[in-house]
Amino acid sequence: MFPTMTAPTAPARRPILQLVGVRKSFGGFHAVQGIDLDVREGEFLTIVGPSGSGKTTLLRMLAGMDSPSEGNITLHGERINDVPPNKRPTCLVFQSLALFPHKSVGENIAFPLKVKGVDAAARKARALELMAIVRLPETYHDKNVMKCSGGERQRVALARALAYDPEVLFFDEPLSAIDYKLKKTLEKELKDLHRETGKTFIYITHSLEEAMVMSDRIGVMRAGKLVQVGTPEEIYGAPVDRFVCEFVGEVNSIEVTRGADGGWSGVDVSGAFKVQPPQGIAEAGAPDRAFIVIRPEYMRVLGPGESADNRVEGVVYNEYSLGSRIQYQVRVNARDGGEKVMLVELSRARALPAGAEPRVTLGWDATDAFTLRG
Amino acid sequence: MTHRRTHALIWIWTLFVVAVVYLPIACGALASFNKSRYFGFPVKAYATDWWEKTLDSIEIGMIVRNSILIALLVTVLSVLIATFGALAFARYDWKGRRLYQKLIMLPIFFPQPVLGLAMLLGFSAVGIQTSWMTAVFAHLVWVVPVVTLVIAIQVYGFDPSLEEAAIDLGCSRLQVLREVTLPLLWPGIWSGMLFAFLLSWSNFPLSLYTAGADSTIPKWLYAKMVAGYTPMVPALGTMATLGAAALLLTGGLVGILVRRRTAS
Fold first, then answer.
1. Is residue B9 part of a domain?
2. In chain B, which residues have their Cβ closer than 8 Å to the Cβ of A116?
3. Which of A33, A343, A356, A362 has its CA 20 to 30 A from that of A169?
4. Nearest residue of A to residue B187, measured between CA atoms
5. Beta-carbon separation of B170 and A101 below 8 A
């Protein structure tokens, strides 16, 4: 009756869900503006984006609660645009979790089985099995679900979704209201569960940190469009534009133009910079604009005699502890006479000594920075 | 010291309010135990004669049956209409909802004698003979809005994603209603039922105009006060009040017991 959960042997990488030109408009508002995406069977895909980027609308279309205004969604090659949620082999874990307050933990978990007409004894057996999988004690079976803690409720919601035995599980920011430490634990558990069940997980969040920890692939959304899809390493290491780059974390950016001689010079910070040419900007030809982006952890404080491809002088005026690392805010002179703040992150072992001279020289090599089109 | 004085003041005020509200009811009860046929205080001799006569009266038996029948029908029909009406009122977004929200509330604020008269005129205009059945209709016009409001309050406290989750987990529309919507609306429906029964049970102006030759308890009490007073009037009045109080008490207890059972 129930499929057993076995660890998948090398997950098949064929697409399970395909989106082609999916759009969704509400009146004149275009929430989702043309999305093409192949979701591979068994992968953990996270869609990340700021609020209002259309990620929840996208998820609701995948789950069948809304249908696309245009485009197609196919599951195993079959068009499912207008298939209602109760006829789809998919299940959504809601942001609010949507646990039934008038049912016990066990009744909540066994709910999809009751709907299918499974008898009470089999329902209870399966509920207990699922409770073990999500690490809920057996004694919770008859507990009022409203008396459970936040983390326990997460587990009940997860077990209930698994009881439906969906091929694809959707998550709409279920961890957003959980405190940091518990969130870290639940993220790891979810990742383990993904591996153990071998099911396809599609997760939505505004927190890139969450996405980085759990996902096989991440899709970054902005204003109804998927800006970039890739592994966490690709998103972090090779962002396609400034939006993705800044979304992924705090960055230093310097606007540069290319002179007639082919060299790059700063627009907002004076100086000549050695850069890796951005993709799509011709090696020779008319001057062009670009941004150099340096992550704070790649920025160095140069000691006497140390060299780097690029250097900027500045004054340290603030420091923050980030736990194992320290972030320094450094004022550098901007070209228009104002000041620009650059961020430098150093490990504690390399921290600037207390009472050190606040004048520093920042440096980075061209290979440690990205160059993005202006 | 000041704390004790405030405490004493609160007590005195509370007792005063309770006395003002309940003393007239007690007076009615006292008048019904008067041995004499005529109304007068202080009561010279007490007896339960008029209570016995009231309980034995065939006429009063019929009137009580009318009142119960009307109230029961009003309860069932109004809760049916109001439950779905409340979902339309508070849960679903549809064109014209705001207008509906205002229109459905209006009958509560119409003066009931005017509403009753209007309906009497309406019934005779279309040639319907007034009876207890037309009184049921008239009560519904006034009770449905109240019950809709009572149930709508429950609907507002209901997370709409619960129904979506139920569908997502495989439920049909009917299963959602049975497994999620109705159980969660149950406290509101239960209070709505009590409201409906009691509002119909005690309604006088609408029954006066629209019940035709059939009488209800309030209508009979009024008629006998106008002409033919006996202590059966306060006796039946007291019985009706006690009946309503008992119903309310039972309703409250059932509510508490059900909540306790689901909570454990």
1. no
2. 170
3. A33
4. A102
5. no
> Which tens digit of pLDDT belongs to each residue from A307-356?
889 989 899 988 888 888 899 999 988 877 778 899 999 998 888 887 77
Task: Search chain A and give the residue with CA nearest B176.
Answer: A115
Q: Which domain holds residue B68?
A: 59-214
Confirm whether B168 is domain-assigned: yes
When the pLDDT of each residue in chain B is averaged and rounded to a whole number, the result is 91
Q: pLDDT of A255-306, one tens digit each?
A: 888 887 778 888 888 888 888 766 555 554 545 788 888 989 899 999 888 8
Residue B196 to chain A, least CA–CA distance (Å)? 25
- In this structure, the answer to whether residues A68 and A171 fall within a common structural domain is yes
- Give how far Cα A104 sits from Cα of A283, B156, B157, Å: 67, 23, 20
- One domain for residues B250 and B120: no
Q: What separation in angstroms does the CA of B99 have from each of B95, B104, B115, B140?
A: 9, 9, 21, 20
Q: Count CB pairs under 8 A between chains A and B.
A: 59
- ipTM computed for the complex: 0.77
Same domain, yes or no, for A294 and A235?
no
Interface test with A, best of B167, B168, B175, B180 (most A CBs within 10 A): B168
Residues A354 and A223 in one domain: no
- Could you tell me the pTM of the whole model? 0.78
Cβ of B170 within 8 Å of Cβ of A164? The answer is: yes
| Position A63 pLDDT exceeds 50 | yes
> Would you say residue A5 lies in a domain?
no
Same domain, B209 and B254: no
CA atoms within a 13 Å half-sphere pointing along the CA-CB vector of A54: 24
Q: Are residues B32 and B132 in the same domain?
A: no
CATH number, position A105: 3.40.50.300
Q: How far apart are CA B33 and CA B43, in angstroms?
A: 8
d(CA A105, CA B261) in angstroms, rounded, equals 15
Q: Identify the closest residue of chain B to A66 by CA–CA distance.
A: B164
Please identify, among A198, A229, A246, the residue that sits at the C-terminal boundary of a domain: A246
Single residue among A227, A246, A265 that ends a domain in this structure: A246
**Length of chain B, in residues:** 264
Domain count, chain B: 2
Contact B169 A101 (CB under 8 A): no
Q: How many CB atoms lie within 10 A of CB A304?
A: 5
Task: For residue A203, give the 3-state DSSP assignment.
Answer: strand
